[in-house]
Amino acid sequence: MTKEKFTLNDTTKCKGIAIMMMLFHHMFLAPDRYKGFTLDFSPFAESSVNTFANFFKICVGVYVFLSAYGLTCSYNKWNNGNSRFLAYRYFKMMLEFYIIYIISVLASLIVNSSKWNIQGVYGKGGIFAAAWKMLIDFLGLAELFGTPTFNSTWWYMSLAIVIIVLIPLLNKLYDKFGWLVLTCAAILLPAAFGIKVVPLTRWLLCIALGIVCARTNALGVIKDKYSSMPVFAKIIAFIGSCAILFIFYKLRQGALKGDFIEIWDSVIPVLVIIFAFLFIN
């Protein structure tokens, strides 16, 4: 019987790592991000720092995996029907976003009151059209509808909603066909139907992996095996894990940059989570 479990504390730890990656990604992705500031990147070249920042886009995959994992655990304890599960998880997530949205709009009105107008943010077409787009943004659906958003980073809310909606469906698929079919479907179906790799499909495999790991306790099994190793074997495992992450980094940012991005940005975040679970306490 597996003793180890991927707990809420482990989730919090991985979220902390993802937040640091996200900050680095947004601050150093390109020279225009820090234009006007004097920075010393030594011992690294500026271009290398920009490459690291680009790689840290994988932070999104970390969030996606953790969301799918946690939602699956919650779903499998839920006894009140799928529709109530979707409504409960949606409003639980969005209530905090609503507060942030309102504060952001009010702060913008105060700081930039002379230039602020709803049509300037949400496009022309009349006050009612702009108000409608504002409502879509408020509901976290701007990325889904392709409408303007008050903050470009809020695109993730649409992805988070998609994850919630997919959890019951993909768990049913897991129950009927098992982990292999679910994983293969996540990889192959978008391409089979000619669906382009966009933010709302890019992390489909990562969602599937989160579900599989939650249902099988795969992370706990890995931790159990690692804990039973002698010290020398643990050192080898650590060195090997670092080497694997470095190889995936070089592949994503080098020879295969731009190719199979939906694979890299799903597998690498899982490897980062496993690394944190095993070696960071």
Name the shape in a single word: globular
Question: What is the count of DSSP helices, taking H or I runs of 4+ residues?
Answer: 13
Structural class: mainly alpha
Estimated radius of gyration:
21 Å
Uncertain spans: none
Distance between the termini: 23 Å
Profile the largest sheet: none
Strand content: under 5%
Average pLDDT reading: 91
Proportion of residues in helical segments: over 70%
Number of strands: 0
Q: Strand-and-helix sequence, N→C?
A: HHHHHHHHHHHHH
Summarize the structure in words.
- It is globular, with a radius of gyration of 21 Å.
- The protein contains 13 helices and no strands.
- Helix 12 runs antiparallel to helix 13.
- The two termini are about 25 Å apart.
- About 70% of the residues lie in helices and about 0% in strands.
- With about 280 residues, it is mainly alpha-helical.
